[in-house]
Automatic annotation (TrEMBL):
It comes from Amycolatopsis ultiminotia. This is Transposase IS4-like domain-containing protein. Residues 2-125 form the Transposase IS4-like domain. Pfam families: DDE_Tnp_1. InterPro entries: Transposase_11 (IPR002559).
């Protein structure tokens, strides 16, 4: 899952249980829809990506930089306390929100398309709740 700075899911993929997380980094970045903001051309990519140690590969750092995105990825073998947790908790919170939905907490469906449909509905509900909260402020 890749989220914006507020915890709104932007893109999410489904893989097998034993796949490395880093294999889904580029498909997730490419799946981010264009974000319309101020006048002009819509931004199609974020400015920076914050990731944990599972994504620490020089090959993927180069690929992310080639897309015009600054990678902030913790290095393996270094002490904890790099400061990335300040940004990474947003994604962990989004996963916790997905686990509020009982059908997603434990996968009972055999078919991928059914599970992806429930996941899409859950992400839509999370986005709607964020928009509802922000419109009240």
């Amino acid at each position: 899952m890749i989220t914006d700075g507020g915890g709104v899911p932007l893109a999410i993929t489904l893989t097998g249980g034993n796949r490395n997380d880093v294999t889904q980094l580029m498909p997730l970045i490419e799946a981010i829809p264009a974000v319309r903001g101020k006048r002009g051309r819509p931004r199609s990519r974020p400015e920076a990506v914050y990731a944990d140690r599972a994504y620490d590969h020089d090959k993927y750092r180069r690929l992310v930089r080639a897309k015009g995105i600054q990678p902030f990825i913790a290095r393996r073998g270094t002490e904890h306390g790099s400061g990335l947790g300040v940004h990474r908790w947003v994604v962990e919170h989004a996963f916790a929100l997905l686990h509020w939905f009982r059908r997603l907490r434990i996968r009972w469906e055999i078919r991928d398309d059914i599970h992806e449909a429930f996941r899409s509905i859950a992400c839509s509900i999370i986005c709607w709740r964020r928009l509802k909260i922000n419109s009240l402020c």
